[in-house]
Amino acid sequence: MKKFLFLSFYLFLSALSAAEITLDECIEKALKNHPDIKRLSLSVAKSRSFVDIAKADYLPQINLNAEYNPINTFVMPQNSQFNTIEDESYKVSAQLNQKIYDFDKTASTVKAYEKEQNRADMTLQDAKALLVYNVKNYYNLALLQSKALKARQKDIQTKEELYKQSLALLKEGLKTEADASSILSALYIAQDNLAITHSELKKALSSLSLYTGEEIDEKSVLKESHPPKEQNGRTLTQNILEKNFSLKGSKEEIQRDALLYEATKAANYGSIDAVASYTHQDTLNEYDTSLVGVMLNIPIYSGGRISAQSQQAKISKEMAKESYNAQKLLLEEEVSDLLIDLERYRHTIKAKEALIASAMATKSIVEGRYKEGLSTYIELLDAASVHLYAELGLLEAKFAINNTINRLEYLQGELQ
Length: 416
Prior knowledge:
By secondary structure, this protein is α+β, with helices and mostly antiparallel strands. The chain contains nine helices and six strands, in the order H-E-H-H-E-E-H-H-E-H-H-E-E-H-H.
């Protein structure tokens, strides 16, 4: 009775120490802690500052200048001769420049940087979606290895029982040492496969820990998440082309380069500015000067710089278009391949489920015949192997389906 109470208490404490973890919690922690998300968030803030820099050209530019010379030599004509006088001098001036019209150069530049800000934001959202996809994969991989671990442990228990039976039958003279040795060899192989599966589970949990920024050990209980939603293949491709963050970022890049091209063309026409200045100067005489007017600046010759910049912007615009088209083709190809894989995995699951049912019946019959000396150890081990690998194959097929659907969700910009 005391042993039973002690065991119950131990199991209770073990259950308390095993923390339950959900997929949503892992995703939330990864989005909060991963350095790539932090880096790209700063990139969005940086691109926003470029918009503010471009908008500054709409506002008046005011400069204040001051000059003081403790020694200044002045030349004064007197009686057909030049006399020099040394004295101190100073000058204080303020200038105001307000752009009136620059043929939409500033407007195009501001819009271009707004598109760049949108593109940076799309890159951030795509990185978040990719991070969610990776976390889902590692979480599902850990679940797969956990279930595979239980299946292999059960297989080891079966082989241990079979080995004990073979030893008992050997004593009765119903089996040979070859039977017991072969089953023992199969047991050792099963134990080795269990160690491999255990190692893969630790790797998956380690990767998941790195993504979430928190330690997840083998005692943690991974809660089964809801199966991903499957969508109609006919509308799926269109949804992906409309919602994919990377593709939307490429569209923003095309518009950005088109606007920059317009801005560089507008630079050929110059600008019209309102100018005003006030100067107070004290040299030999003290006086004030002021100026209010309109100034027209037209670049007549810039050494080919403006035309080269315009050509460069035009090439960048065309490159962005072709980059978008290439990305769209790759996206359509990947979606097509994923949908074909989904259909194949569905057939695989049906086949594995049928194989499990058949293998269980066969295994039960063969085990009974082996006890009666009507089956060989080879038939017995084959039946156990077929059942085990059917179970593992079903788990892997379901894992592959989940990963494929998760990939399709990522391509659609899903963040959960």
